[in-house]
From TrEMBL:
One Pfam family named in its UniProt record: MG2
InterPro entries registered for this protein in UniProt: MG2, YfhM-like
GO MF term set: endopeptidase inhibitor activity
Domain called Macroglobulin: residue spans: 119-196
Organism expressing this protein natively: termite gut metagenome
Name of this protein: Macroglobulin domain-containing protein
Length: 197
């Protein structure tokens, strides 16, 4: 993407990555990770996708594993002290646009937790101005000992609060068959600057 400022002529260029894949990663027993590659639009599993795993040493990336997803869009790989994964990429057919993604697991697997409900919230951008619309997508899933399943048909309440934790909006949503929902909030035009929750 290239942006040129009118009067000053300042040029800003940035790479824009477009991919149809999303990968969810979780730590599982026996010192392993399990990852599911999903179609980013439908949420359906993507079989036979190539997952490339990388390590990083002194700023240099090295591919250490290349795995194909199974019929359920899943792969497993070891979690060891010797291998510190820097991230992964996913590709299939002509979709090779995913930049290096960090492995988003920052917790220690706890075998005593057998049924954990989780929610991932995504917004269309990181920074908003007063009066803009915030588009929200959520994915609800249940992690069990060695599996993860989406939570379909569940009702949730989204509450948006301002920087002082005052409620400025509330929406009722229900997950679809893929465990996801979408909604939107319009930020008040005279609202406070800062973080909204």
């Amino acid at each position: 993407m290239r942006i040129v400022a009118g009067k000053t002529g300042v040029v800003v260029e940035n790479l824009l990555y477009i991919t149809g894949f999303k990968m969810l990663t979780c730590a599982i027993p026996d010192n392993q990770y399990e990852a599911a590659v999903l179609d980013a639009e439908s949420g359906k599993p993507v079989p036979d996708a190539l997952v490339r795993l990388f390590t990083e040493k002194k700023g240099e990336l090295t591919e250490v594993k290349a795995l194909l997803t199974d019929k359920d869009g899943k792969v497993r790989f070891p979690r060891t002290d010797e291998i510190n994964y820097a991230g992964y990429t996913v590709e299939k057919d002509t979709d090779r646009g995913m930049p290096l993604q960090r492995i988003g697991v920052s917790y220690v697997f706890n075998e005593s937790v057998t049924n954990l409900w989780q929610m991932i919230l995504l917004t269309d951008r990181a920074l908003y101005r007063p009066g803009q619309t915030v588009y929200v997508k959520g994915i609800a899933y249940r992690s069990q000992t060695d599996t993860a399943n989406v939570i379909a048909g569940e009702k949730y309440t989204l509450t948006l609060t301002d920087a002082n934790r005052r409620e400025i909006g509330k929406k009722e949503v229900r997950t679809n068959e893929f465990g996801s929902f979408t909604s939107e909030f319009v930020l008040p035009s005279g609202g406070l600057n800062g973080e909204y929750y």
